[in-house]
Amino acid sequence: xxxxxxxxxxxxxxxxxxxxxxxxxxxxxxxxxNIIDKYKHLGTTISHLVKDAxxxxxxxxxxxxxxxxxxxxxxxxxxxxITFLERAINYYGKQKNLDRxxxxxxxxxxxxxxxxxTTFNQLIAAAEAPEDALEKPFKRNVxxxxxxxYTGKPLKNLxxxxxxxxxxxxxxxxxxxxxxxxxxxxxxxxxLFKHRQNKRYSRYWLGYFTEVFSLGDLSFKxxxxxxxxxxxxxxxxxxxxxxxx
Length: 245
Known about the structure:
- 57% of the residues lie in helices and 13% in strands.
- It is of the alpha+beta class.
- Helix 9 crosses helix 10.
């Protein structure tokens, strides 16, 4: 009985191999036949053409829904897929050659900052102020102008995550800091700002962000604390609902 079972298993395995190796015959229209003949004359086998076509079909259909949504949004109704892909690739190539590449290079190689007029004036005032008189320069800042612009939300709808994530994004892009680390536990957020300046620079931004997180018009209350070091600024932001204060 055991031998019969083993023989049956062997027979099933052979059938499975045979079914996988069995040639696939399909009838194609004249257009497809002409395409096949075109590449056959170039030395490509039909099996290789089928393999490449199936793999390409599978890769296309394995794209994320988000990517497919982009294609559906920007592809013209009567546009061939390959035409759209060529157009998209050409557009990407042109974007790569714009002046934004120069900005990225200057930021990374020359450590230059993207700076607005108000911030520039405040930094000049901070530089001219006595060592112990930084309070006035950082009280007027445009942080919320940038935050509202970036998030697209009204002030009353902002969350603490909106504030922190926008600061971590915009202030690094502008190269005020080369890295901002965020650690979150419960209602407490720890931010570590890293730069290549000096302690006075850290003190300026400590006062700046203390003003930002102390704004009274938010739907929640922040209690900011921090320490300024030579090339880092450490801040702890505790969050509480205003009704609990």
